[in-house]
Amino acid sequence: MSDALDKAEAAAREAAVNTAAVQIALAAVELAKAAQQQPVQQQACEHQHKQGRSTGEWLGIACAVCVGSVGLAFASIAIAIAACCATGCFLILRSIWHSTLKGK
User: Fold this and answer.
1) In Å, how far are 5, 16, 18, 24 from 12, measured between CA atoms?
2) pTM above 0.70?
3) Residue 61 neighbours by CB under 8 Å, 6+ apart
4) Domains of the chain by residue range
């Protein structure tokens, strides 16, 4: 019985050694596969691309530019009207001033 037990134990050890050898061989195969795939992965683009603006964003920008330019046009017209009014008032006051000086 001891002889059979020793044989079974030796067979179990041999199987364990064979299993470890098979595991090492499979690990080596996996490592070789990874080494072949690694250069392909390195050639791939690793940085993140910035996405372009969407159509809605471009429309929003265009509307903002239009509104801004219309506002600037109205502001320019208001400044021109104010300058004309100020010049007219100045000329009228100057005329009144001269007529009062001549009347004395």
Assistant:
1) 10, 6, 10, 18
2) no
3) 53
4) 1-49, 50-104
